[in-house]
Write a sequence for this structure.
């Protein structure tokens, strides 16, 4: 009976985990082990692009890639992981629950936007968390031109001035030019910390501020959204902003599946993993991407919920799951190079190097790099078996 390496999730980490596992099996001519990937749809959602227009275009069908690599696709959403007897429960497209056994599991189930219990948040806030959320926002923006020309219609509040909030705020002026021609929109970033990009540090902040000023983006700092309704938001200081479009970009939380398999999770709900991305406690489970809290280097830095870490942890986790099943040595995950490239819309972008985020490039040149990242580097190669398996080598993974 064939043994199974099961990968949960078809995001960056899940796709590359499955390909990396298939690569190990191919290298060792193993015929009695299958790699299977389970997700609701065989789609790779390109979340780094969801702040851009036309969000329906920012996903890619990975069925040809899975078929080319000999990976079985299982459609469904995993509800529970039973590590004691090595199987998962998943709900199929028809809602029926089925059980799938595994010999090794790679949890790459991703993350979702954290939505705290703020009155009106669920009912009235838009987001760009998932492709469906970004599509809903895009559809809403396209209805605005048919509404009366009022300050509320022309005001856009973005709650959260982190990475996502900044990128969206900088992109909106260009998107709205075609939707509301002749209108000067009011775009307001609301941030509870005292500065924009609080997690980005002081290195790139002057560049970000310059871009925001150039694009006419207002900032309300040291303020939190305390309530939303159909007409706008209320801030902690009691100020009310009338707006037909409020967009929430709060922090992320790992899939709840991480807590089911892990002995310990971090503040973001991620499984705390060993150096080879194994979830401690037995059961043959590895974790990658947004589901894993892993040390990246000898200085003790940890992975972020970011594409660059998902692309590489996925490769290592899939490789190690296959090696572990075959009785081969696993590889320690290390990703010492860390960069950021923040899209600043029509102004350009800013590219930083190192965990201290020293600015290495800004403006048009950084924008060209960002475009290359988003249109080339994050996409999988052509669905050709040899090319896919070669690209799944963790030692050759993109680490910049």
């Amino acid at each position: 009976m064939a043994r199974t390496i099961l990968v949960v999730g078809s995001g960056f980490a899940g796709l590359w985990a499955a390909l990396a596992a298939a690569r190990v099996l191919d290298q060792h001519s193993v015929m009695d082990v299958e790699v299977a990937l389970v997700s609701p749809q065989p789609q790779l959602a390109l979340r780094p692009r969801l702040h851009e227009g036309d969000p329906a275009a920012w996903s890619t069908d990975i069925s040809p890639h899975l078929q080319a690599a000999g990976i079985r696709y299982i459609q469904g959403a995993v509800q529970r992981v039973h590590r004691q007897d090595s199987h998962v429960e998943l709900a199929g497209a028809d809602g029926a629950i089925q059980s799938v056994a595994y010999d090794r599991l790679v949890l790459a189930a991703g993350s979702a936007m954290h939505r705290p219990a703020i009155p009106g948040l669920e009912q009235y806030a838009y987001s760009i968390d998932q492709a469906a959320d970004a599509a809903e926002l895009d559809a809403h923006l396209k209805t605005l031109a048919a509404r009366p020309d009022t300050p509320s219609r022309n005001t856009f509040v973005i709650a959260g001035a982190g990475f996502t909030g900044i990128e969206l705020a900088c992109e909106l002026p260009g998107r709205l030019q075609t939707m509301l021609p002749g209108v000067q929109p009011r775009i307001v970033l609301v941030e509870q910390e005292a500065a924009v990009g609080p997690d980005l540090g002081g290195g790139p902040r002057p560049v970000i501020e310059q871009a925001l000023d150039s694009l006419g983006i207002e900032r309300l700092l040291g303020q939190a959204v305390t309530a939303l309704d159909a007409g706008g938001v209320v801030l902690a200081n009691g100020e009310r902003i009338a707006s037909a479009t409020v967009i929430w970009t709060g922090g992320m939380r790992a899939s709840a599946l991480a807590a089911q398999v892990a002995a310990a999770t971090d503040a973001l709900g991620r499984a705390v993993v060993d150096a080879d991305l194994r979830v401690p406690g037995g059961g043959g489970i590895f974790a990658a991407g947004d589901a894993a809290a892993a040390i990246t280097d000898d200085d003790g830095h940890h992975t972020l919920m970011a594409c660059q870490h998902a692309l590489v942890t996925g490769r290592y986790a899939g490789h190690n799951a296959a090696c572990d099943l075959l009785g081969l040595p696993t590889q320690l995950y290390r990703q010492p190079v860390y960069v950021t490239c923040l899209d600043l819309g029509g102004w350009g972008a800013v590219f930083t190097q190192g965990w201290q985020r020293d600015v290495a490039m800004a403006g048009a040149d950084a924008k060209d790099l960002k475009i290359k990242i988003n249109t080339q580097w994050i996409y999988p190669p052509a669905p050709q078996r040899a090319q896919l398996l070669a690209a799944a080598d963790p030692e050759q993974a993109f680490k910049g």
